[in-house]
Design goal:
The complex is a heterodimer.
Chain A (H helix, E strand, L loop, with lengths): L5 H20 L4 H8 L4 H9 L16 H21 L5 H25 L4 H7 L18 H8 L20 H26 L1 H26 L6 H7 L9 H8 L3 H8 L5 H7 L9 H16 L7 H25 L14
Helix pairs in contact in A: 1-15, 4-15, 5-6, 5-8, 8-9, 9-14, 10-11, 14-15
Chain B lengths: L13 H5 L8 H4 L12 H5 L7 H4 L4 E9 L3 H11 L2 E4 L13 H23 L16 H44 L3 H9 L5 H5 L10 E8 L1 H15 L3 E7 L4 E2 L6 E2 L2 E8 L1 H13 L3 E3 L5 H57 L3 E2 L5 E9 L3 H12 L7 E5 L16 H10 L10 H15 L3 H16 L4 H5 L3 H8 L1 H18 L16 H8 L3 H6 L31 H34 L3 H32 L11 H10 L13 H37 L4 H12 L3 H5 L3 H6 L11 H25 L2 H25 L5 H43 L21
Antiparallel strand pairs in B: 1-10, 1-11, 2-10, 3-7, 3-8, 4-7, 5-6, 9-10
Helix pairs in contact in B: 5-12, 5-13, 6-7, 6-12, 7-12, 10-11, 14-15, 15-19, 15-30, 15-31, 16-19, 22-23, 22-29, 22-30, 23-25, 23-29, 25-29, 30-31
Classes of the chains: A mainly alpha, B alpha+beta.
Chain lengths: 351, 883
């Protein structure tokens, strides 16, 4: 990128940036959450959401309203917004958007493969797929027997193809292998995305790299946490860690050796960013989970992304914030529908 | 309740005349406040006429805050009646209650449910290509019990429609399926041909040509089907990749487009025929075709079997078509019923929902027997309001009660307009809706706006065209076709037709003053200049005349100048070469004179504001200094212009002094020896004026704040000692205008005499405000006067443009040839060009630019002298559709 990209950023992407900032202003505020939490039924929730930017997105839903209906409609709304952005974008922003969809595509592919493994019908699983990660060949995933099959026949034309370079093996696809495949895909995806942002330079790199670094490290932590007590060997574990984070390389090596949560925490203590996060995690009885803490940190980074102008990070941040908001609404809606009000306030506030 | 005894209510005295039973707190004070409602008029007849008196234009009407006690049983009918009349604007008394905790939320929700069904019905009607006609006649909001009936009927209708629709869809889907199958079989007539077509040179060709030949064991199987065209390429590639050439696929577009079963739109499909070897490949192909949502059909290998199947299919689809036709007939019957019933329902339910939303803004009385609403209502409409409430609550036995309450909030602004004044009020409102009861510039705008426009647009011909265009619109305004036109640009012009009418008329007038008609001068009266007298007396020889193309007419020679032209500019000037410099001098001076007059008028209008808001000190501390400053400096300039015009004759013209130099010297307190004084003692007068004007600046800067500060101090000193007595007095003296003075203006809020306002006095804020105002006014006087020179510039531009157009187009055309025939032929396109350019450039473009500048002169130069425009409009709760 040339110096002074701010000068002509607006020529190509000014409209979309303006639009996304407008959309961001439509995120639910603290007051909205206070009102949502007070709702007695899902109908109340719907009425309240009508007064926000969601409008009457539930107007055509037949009664009774369920949480999954709300979830689907919200996803549809996000998806249509995203599609709009994407259809109006120019290079290299459109590549950036493609990278953004890749993570959802990976999830969808894995979901379908798991479904095929458990002999579920494709239709049943398609409903669960994230609309942002849809692609035409998606449903053909279940004809593949091995990863190379999958790559050669189905995914070679999709943006996912480059990420398969590292995970071509002739293994039979069983549950463990699929999980390994997911993590490997994700690893190469994150690294590719990171490289893209880094090469792009400018404010985009300044904003996106920390976010992606955090994402990579979060995955490393989560993989470590989930591999405790499984048959995954430590060497295998290390191959799954994305290497674009702050933990690379020392932290990752230590993490690969970690055997319980305490050891993991000790690794994190070497890093100024993660130390406070691990300290905020409560012990089993109360307090926040590690996941929530990570989410909160992510929200914070995404909100901060809006402080700079002339970069692509706002699109990423907006999508992530919107997703968090949807998780919050779903959480509140679940609490309401299950009459489980004690935990209703455990949503992640968006600042 | 806000009815403290310190605010003796400016209560509504009408109840007494009508023998009503309204609570009225203080009758002694009420008498002098409400003189605007003549009791002789019956309530109903007066409020429906839009503009009864022009008096209401000068300032916005008195608007009262009223409390409505609506008995629970009659609340709905009352509010619905109010919606029909559009008299009041409800205030939200439940602002703190969220939308879903309000009283009538259930009813609103039911209305919304119904509207959802309506939307479904409406979309179905539209999809069938039918239109919904707007309902006719008056449709009041239905009584609440009707909601159930409408709901039932709607649901039944919707269910019926859904069933028929569903039937139609399934039938269509079946038909679609059959047609696709037919297309696939039709395509399958010639598989060998396909093979040779696709890869004739390949080694696989013999396999296909002779499937039962030497490779009997390698049986060729077929999969045939159809896929949407945009997926075909991807499908073909995927098939090839997944099966690695163990198949041959041929794709072909259907010959005729098929009707899509859901949308009903025609779309072509791709049919495909895949021939393959081997069982496994077959399974894979099936999976792949499945995931692309292809329709796969059985494909007979024998030609005859295919023929038989095809015929069977054709017969089936014939039968299906008949059934489908029957279904569609029934569907159109149902849709016809929907078309008839839906529009009135939509209007009714819409009204009903609006009523419930309005009721949601009311609070419930302690006894739950009635709803209490607060609303703004024009004082003049109060009798009508009460009448309406009585009428609609009489059924319930308990009558609804209206009761005027005092308030400290600024009431909304209501200026009633008719179709003539609406566009002028629109110009003012576009700048800002006036503060409650401040002087409304609109009535003056009626005259000044077209006038200032015309000064910049002065041309008889152009003005006449504009006038005629506007006149045509005015005469045709009642025609339904004109009213119903939807074009946005047309609506803009149509909305301002009376404005255009006056602008055209005034342009004709200024056109006569400038003596220009399509840039040509008219000779209506005899010119004041006599050339022959000049020739007679100057003794010009023939030789002299031949050598000098330009001759000077000297007004000092007797008989040459016989006195001014009776009206406007003398036509002889259009022949003169110094025409432009003469006009420039004239127009420049005229602009300054008009500007200073206009601004001074603005300052004077401020007087009415101060008088109305009971702030007499501002007359002395603001209006007077402002007037002295403006008139002392620029008024004096105007005086000089007039003085020079009147006192210098052609004879003394050579020795006439320059006003400009004088005016500059005035500020420098100096005198230039070459510039003779205009009148004796001029220097003294000038110095006095400058000193006076400059002395006004500190008065303007400090006067009001110091006065308010002193008033505040005096009151706060008095307060602790004689509280009891003082309260009575201030109550009586001040509170009568407390409600008005309270929102008098920003700085006034601080100095308002109301006891509770005392705490709000912030001296720094008042000083700051006044400082800004002073600087703005003093600098504005200079820059605004200069700004009025745009009148000169624009009128010059207009005159020159039309002159150029005449010279470059029409005159060249007229000079083309001397023969009548040639002229006639040439002049047709020339005149067409002239006419088009006149309308496009001079009328539309120049007109818009002059309009814009006139608008600016009003908003910036005129209105900032007195108009704050910080109010908000009264928007009554009304069912009437905005035009």
């Amino acid at each position: 990128m040339l110096e002074g990209a701010e000068l002509y950023f607006n020529v190509d992407h000014g409209y979309l940036e303006g639009l996304v900032r407008g959309c961001k202003a439509g995120l639910l505020t603290e007051r909205d959450y206070v009102n949502l939490v007070q709702c007695e039924t899902l109908e109340d929730l719907k009425i309240h959401l009508q007064t926000t930017d969601y409008g009457n997105f539930l107007a055509n839903q037949t009664n009774p309203l369920t949480v999954s209906k709300i979830d689907t409609e919200m996803r549809k709304k996000l998806c249509s917004e995203f599609e709009y952005f994407r259809n109006h974008s120019l290079e290299p922003l459109s590549t950036f958007f493609t990278y953004m969809t890749c993570s959802y595509m990976i999830d969808n592919v894995i979901l379908l493969m798991n479904g095929a493994l458990q002999k579920k019908s494709v239709k049943e699983i398609l409903v669960k797929c994230h609309p942002l990660g849809r692609f035409t060949e998606m449903e053909a995933v279940n004809i593949a027997e091995t990863p190379s099959d999958l790559f050669n026949a189905v995914l070679i034309e999709t943006p996912l193809a480059p990420f398969f370079q590292d995970c071509m093996s002739e293994n039979i696809l069983d549950e463990l292998n699929i999980e390994l495949l997911r993590n490997k895909l994700y690893k190469s995806y994150l690294e590719a995305f990171y490289k893209f942002c880094k090469n792009h330079g400018d404010v985009t790199a300044e904003i996106m790299c920390p976010i992606l670094e955090f994402e990579a490290d979060r995955r490393a932590f989560i993989i470590t946490l989930n591999s405790f007590g499984t048959e995954l060997s430590k060497e295998d574990r290390e191959t799954l860690f994305p290497t674009c984070g702050k933990l690379h390389p020392e932290g990752l090596r230590l993490l690969a050796q970690a055997e319980d949560f305490e050891q993991m925490k000790r690794v994190a203590e070497h890093y100024g960013v993660y130390k406070p996060l691990f300290e905020a995690v409560g012990d089993g009885s109360g307090g926040k989970t590690l996941e929530d803490v990570f989410y909160e940190h992510e929200v914070q980074m995404n909100v901060l992304a809006f402080n700079r102008q002339f970069h692509y990070g706002v699109f990423y941040a907006y999508t992530k914030l919107k997703e968090q908001e949807m998780r919050n609404i779903v959480w509140i809606a679940e609490c309401i529908s299950q009459r489980h009000r004690t935990k209703i306030n455990n949503y992640i506030p968006i600042l | 309740m806000k009815m403290g005894q310190t605010y003796p209510a400016p209560a509504w005295d009408l109840p007494h005349r009508h023998g009503g039973h309204l609570p009225c707190q203080d009758c002694s004070l009420s008498a002098f406040r409400n003189t605007t409602v003549p009791s002789s008029l019956t309530p109903r007849s007066m409020d429906l006429r839009p503009c009864r008196t022009m008096g209401s234009m000068f300032r916005s009407e008195e608007v009262a805050l009223v409390q409505l006690f609506l008995p629970t049983a009659a609340a709905y009918t009352c509010v619905s009646q109010l919606g029909e009349l559009g008299l009041v604007e409800f205030r939200d008394l439940n602002a703190s209650v969220s939308a879903f905790q309000r009283r009538f939320v259930m009813d609103v929700r039911r209305c919304e449910e119904l509207e959802k069904t309506f939307t479904f019905l409406q979309e179905e009607v539209w999809r069938a290509g039918l239109a919904l006609s707007p309902p006719e006649g008056a449709l009041p909001a239905p009584p609440p019990r009707d909601l159930l009936r409408i709901q039932e009927e709607t649901d039944r209708l919707a269910q019926e429609l859904r069933d028929v629709r569903g039937n139609q869809q399934t039938l269509r889907a079946q038909l679609h399926q059959l047609q696709l199958h037919e297309a696939v079989l039709g395509q399958g007539h010639c598989p060998p041909l396909v093979a040779t077509d696709t890869d004739g040179s390949s080694e696989r060709t013999p396999l296909l040509q002779d499937p039962r030949g030497p490779h009997q064991d390698l049986r060729v199987n077929f999969v045939a089907g159809a896929v949407e065209p945009h997926k075909a390429a991807a499908l073909e590639r995927l098939l090839w990749r997944a099966c690695r050439g163990f198949l041959i696929a041929s794709f072909r577009e259907t010959e005729q487009p098929l009707q899509d079963p859901v949308t009903g739109e025609p779309a072509t499909w791709m049919t495909f025929l895949i021939s393959y070897w081997g069982e496994q490949i077959g399974q894979k192909i099936l999976k792949i075709t499945n995931c692309f949502h292809c329709h796969v059909f059985p494909f007979e290998e024998q030609e005859e079997a295919r023929h038989a199947a095809l015929q069977q299919l054709q017969q089936q689809s014939h039968e299906l078509l008949e059934v489908l036709g029957e279904t569609e007939r029934f569907l159109s019957q149902v849709l016809g019923r929907v078309q008839r019933l839906l529009p009135p329902w939509q209007v009714q339910i819409h009204k009903m929902k609006a009523v419930y939303l309005a009721l949601n803004q009311c609070s419930v009385s302690a006894t739950h027997k009635c709803l209490i609403a607060e609303a703004w209502c024009a004082a003049r409409d109060l009798p009508a309001l009460q009448q309406a409430l009585q009428d609609s609550s009489s059924e319930a036995g308990v009558s609804a009660v209206v009761h005027r309450i005092p308030c400290r909030d600024m009431p909304p602004t209501l200026v009633r307009t008719n179709r003539f004044t609406a566009s002028f009020q629109g110009i003012v409102d576009a700048y800002g809706v006036g503060r409650y009861q401040e002087v409304n510039p609109a009535p003056y705008t009626v005259v000044t706006f077209p006038f200032l426009f015309a000064v910049m647009f002065g041309d008889v011909g152009h003005g006449l065209l504009m006038f005629l265009f506007a006149l045509a619109m005015v005469l045709a305004e009642n025609r339904p076709a004109v009213k119903a036109a939807q074009n946005e640009i047309w609506r803009t012009f149509f909305g301002g037709r009376y404005l255009l009418l006056l602008m055209g008329l005034f342009s004709v007038y200024t056109g006569f003053i400038y003596n220009e008609c399509f840039s040509r001068a008219t000779v209506i009266f005899r010119s004041g200049w006599n050339v022959s007298a000049m020739v007679d007396q100057s003794g010009w020889s023939d030789e002299f005349l031949a050598q000098h193309p330009l001759l000077t007419l000297d007004p000092n020679v007797s008989g040459v100048f016989r006195g001014p032209y009776p009206f406007g500019i003398d036509p002889v000037w259009s022949l003169a070469v110094n025409h432009l410099s003469f006009l420039n001098s004239f127009k420049m001076k005229m602009s300054v004179i008009l500007g200073v007059t206009h601004m001074a008028f603005g300052v004077v209008l401020g007087v009415f504001n101060h008088l109305h808001f009971r702030q007499p000190y501002r007359l002395l501390l603001e209006t007077l200094p402002e007037l002295v400053f403006l008139l002392g400096l620029f008024g004096y300039l105007v005086f000089l212009v007039f003085y020079k015009w009147l006192c210098y004759t052609p004879a003394s013209a050579a020795s006439a002094p320059s006003i400009l130099i004088h005016f500059i010297n005035m500020f420098l307190f100096s005198q230039s020896p070459t510039n003779r004084p205009l009148f004796t003692g001029q220097e003294l007068v000038q110095s006095a004026l400058v000193v006076l004007a400059l002395a006004m600046v500190p008065v303007l800067l400090l006067g009001t704040p110091l006065f308010l500060f002193r008033q505040h101090r005096r009151r706060s000193r008095k307060r602790p000692t004689g509280r009891q007595l003082d309260e009575d007095q201030t109550g009586l003296l001040d509170s009568s205008n407390a409600s008005e003075a309270a929102w008098g203006s920003d700085e006034e809020k601080a100095g308002c005499p109301g006891p509770e306002e005392e705490a709000e006095f912030v001296p720094s804020e008042v000083f700051m405000h006044q400082a800004i105002h002073t600087i703005e006014f003093c600098l504005g006087c200079i820059s605004n006067t200069a700004s009025y020179l745009r009148l000169w510039a624009l009128s010059l531009a207009h005159a020159q443009l039309s002159e150029v157009l005449w010279a470059m187009v029409m005159r060249t055309g007229l000079r083309m040839g001397n023969k009548i025939g040639v002229m006639a032929v040439v002049l047709v396109p020339i005149f067409a060009a002239f006419a088009v350019l006149t309308v496009a450039i001079l009328l539309v473009m120049e007109g818009l630019s002059a309009f814009l500048h006139a608008l600016r002169l009003h908003w910036v130069e005129f209105q900032n002298k007195f108009y704050s425009g910080t109010g908000y409009k009264l928007s009554p709760f009304s069912f009437a559709v905005e035009e």
